[in-house]
Design brief:
It contains 12 helices and no strands. It is mainly alpha-helical.
Length: about 280
């Protein structure tokens, strides 16, 4: 029952993260994405201080923040040099990267069923993203660094929260604050801030729901399923992102994308049929 509760909680995380894509697309047109991420994570830092009164674990939290900061910085920078479809696909490669870093850091091998599921997830992500066959460029390389950083962050969350006496919420403020600083440093590269009402509404939603609440759920429940199973649960994020884009932005879903979504759902279920 504990594992089922953790799976459902992490599925909520994928819903929250998936919803950020259409919300931010509507709000960020013509705006500076680095400034947006700075305000998002700075606001999340203040929310964290207000909601959680425990002492921050600076060492572990800053290490997590380092990888989140690198992830967001390289993703946003890479997007300026490559297409959004290629960026989405390469970013999603953090999912099959997780078992590699889980083995290197935690010494945990994925099960055979999970290996099959990770392979299926790559196929599903490719069909869902439908990236172009353009030559691999500097933007793609930056985005690949983003995928590696996100994969390491997922594995380290499991490792740190499994330590005896670790209060999960103590990891939140340091990683949010460092991520905010990362984006502040890069903000001159992103153009004008572009404040508007939709910008502010998206900022509050992503800071409170998709950052504070979602990351708190991640650090609280991910250890109950393990890094490999969690990564396969997170394959639902691009599925929800596509569904919300269809509902909110009237974006068309092609047949191949629908097949990719189905494959991702199957891979997520397969990978969680037994403990990894």
């Amino acid at each position: 029952m504990k594992r089922v509760r953790a799976i459902l909680a992490l599925l909520f995380v994928t819903v929250a993260w998936g919803l950020t894509f259409p919300v931010q697309k509507m709000a960020l047109t013509g705006s500076n994405p680095f400034f947006y991420n700075f305000f998002r994570f700075l606001l999340a830092s203040f929310f964290t201080l207000f909601l959680f009164r425990n002492k921050p674990r600076w060492r572990e939290g800053l290490i997590l923040g380092l990888f989140i900061g690198i992830g967001y910085a390289t993703q946003t920078s890479g997007l300026k040099l490559t297409s959004s479809t290629k960026s989405g696909f390469i970013t999603s490669l953090y999912i099959p990267f997780v078992p590699i870093f889980s083995f290197l850091i935690e010494r945990i091998k994925p099960t055979r069923l999970q290996l099959v599921s990770f392979f299926l997830s790559i196929v599903g992500l490719y069909l869902l993203s439908s990236p172009s066959s353009d030559v691999f460029n500097a933007g793609d390389l930056l985005t690949l660094f983003c995928a590696v950083a996100f994969a390491i962050q997922i594995v380290l969350v499991t490792r740190y929260t499994s330590q005896e006496g670790c209060e999960e919420s103590s990891l939140l403020f340091p990683q949010f604050f460092l991520t905010a600083l990362f984006n502040l440093v890069l903000s001159p590269l992103g153009g004008p801030i572009g404040f508007k009402l939709s910008y502010l509404l998206a900022l509050v939603f992503t800071a409170l729901v998709a950052t504070v609440l979602a990351f708190w759920v991640q650090v609280k429940f991910q250890r109950d399923v393990g890094s490999n199973s969690a990564a396969l649960i997170y394959t639902a994020e691009p599925v929800f992102a596509s569904l919300f884009a269809f509902l909110m932005l009237a974006e068309r879903v092609t047949t191949s994308q629908a097949i990719g979504m189905c494959i991702l759902v199957v891979s997520s279920i397969m990978g969680n049929l037994r403990r990894g």
